């Protein structure tokens, strides 16, 4: 953690989403979600062969929060 940074909240299983769950939330095809993540338009992490998304970051993006 960086000096002066706020402590992170514990990560819960329900905070981690797959591309298909994000697609359902955003009402778009999974392939579009995967493409947007690949080009950096949706925040995500590759874990092995899977791309995972954090619900708070997706919600912040929808609410236009930093």
Task: Describe the protein's architecture and organization.
The protein is α+β, with helices and mostly antiparallel strands and 66 residues long. The chain has a single domain (14-62), classed as Molybdopterin biosynthesis moea protein, domain 2. The protein is 38% helix and 17% strand. The chain contains three helices and three strands, in the order βααββα. Helix 1 (19-26) packs across helix 2 (30-38). The radius of gyration is 13 Å and the shape is globular.
Number of continuous helical runs: 3
Shape: globular
Oligomer status? single chain
| Count of spatially separate domains | 1
How much β-strand is present in the residues? 15-25%
Q: What's the alpha carbon Rg, rounded to whole Å?
A: 13 Å
CATH class: Alpha Beta
Mean pLDDT: 88
Structural class: alpha+beta
Strand order of the largest sheet: 1-3-2
**Helix residue percentage:** 25-40%
Distance between the ends: 19 Å
The main β sheet shows up as:
3 strands, antiparallel
Number of strands: 3
Question: What is the CATH topology assignment?
Answer: Molybdopterin biosynthesis moea protein, domain 2
Gross CATH architecture: Alpha-Beta Complex
Spans where pLDDT lies below 50 across 5 or more residues: none
């Amino acid at each position: 953690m960086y000096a002066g940074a706020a402590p992170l909240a514990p990560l819960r299983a329900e905070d981690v989403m797959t591309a298909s769950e994000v697609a359902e939330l955003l009402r778009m095809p999974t392939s579009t979600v995967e493409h947007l993540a690949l080009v950096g338009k949706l925040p995500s992490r590759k874990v092995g062969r899977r791309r995972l998304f954090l619900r708070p970051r997706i919600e912040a993006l929808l609410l236009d929060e930093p």
